[in-house]
Amino acid sequence: MAFNQNTYTSYKVEYTNELTEARKTAESSTITFTTGKVAEVKGNITAKVSGEEVNENTDVKAGEIITYDLVVENTGTQTANNINFDITIPDNTTLIEVNPKYPSYDETMDHYTKDEEFLVSKPDKNFSINEKATIEAGKKYTYSYMVMVNKDVKETKNIETKVAIRQEEKQLAEVTKTNKITSGDIQVTCIPMYRNPDTVLDVGF
Question: Is-contact 62 93, C-beta < 8 A?
Answer without folding.
Answer: no
